[in-house]
Amino acid sequence: MAEASAKNGHPRARNGTSTDRSRIWGGIDLGGTKIEAVIVDARGEVLGRARHPTPVKGGPGEVVKELYGTLGEAAQTAGITPAKLAGVGVGAPGSVDANRGTLAHTGNVAGGWDAPYPLASDLGDLVGSKVVMGNDVQVAVAAEYKLGAGRNYRSVLGVWWGTGVGGGLVLNGVPWRGQGSAGEIGHMVVKPDGARCGCGRRGCLEAYAGRAAMELRARRAVKRGEKTILFKIMRDKKRTRLSSGVWAKALEEKDPLATRLVQRGVRMLGVTVASVINLLDVEAVVFGGGLGSRLGMPYVDRIADAMSPHLFMTGRRPAMHVAELGDLSGAIGAALLAGPQM
User: Where is the stretch described as Disordered (predicted)?
Assistant: First the structure.
């Protein structure tokens, strides 16, 4: 089983545990292409983990089943059952109402649904314990702030670059959620009347840098006769969508279409992050998500270069990092939301 980094006290995954079971929590990260689940103790140490693909159809009911299945597998690797968990947290994209435990407007998940769905109560019925919810990126950024790349700073911007582009903020040590949707960096407008975004509006960052938007543009380019190895790599990897690994391999092979689309995304990310820095002047920016983690510091450095012409205080650029908890940031953050206070 893969391990999260243990350097500097970061969580390490391990099989089996003799930890007091009343002090063990589950965390689930619901993404556009994958569901990641972890079991953690009171220190945030990862005791077990599992990953399943996100259902591509079937709606919210099918998603809840897969969430439970992934959690069950993670619990099994930790030597327990989900019923033994003190609580479960879920980080999800879209519109999360934490008080009601509902999820709505999930354009990147299972074909999407708009009406609020009682995901927490439905999953809680299967698990047999309390389920709490939070925005996927907000909880991931909180985990990085407490345990990962943001732990040495008081103010952090998290940018989660994957199927979409999400964001989260910690300001002077406090997670900043505004009225519930603060940090939606993917829906900052980078080009008025620009490309159509999955949210229905035009010119959002996500319409240029989100993996789903880049895939749509790649498919259109292929229909026009443009050559690319993106879809060959996708088939070779037995994927149905252009995952982060597919994009990374295509960039490694210097595929012209992949290179052009990612370069455009990097440029728009630079413009947007610079605008946030000009407004909030945070100390550090942490990049996570499928593409952010997969492409790593070489591409974070490119984003930093793209930021530079747009920064007001050019001599005080924020520290730039890749999420240290990697793919587990969201799931660990969701677990912390459910119980452990670091």
Answer: 1-24
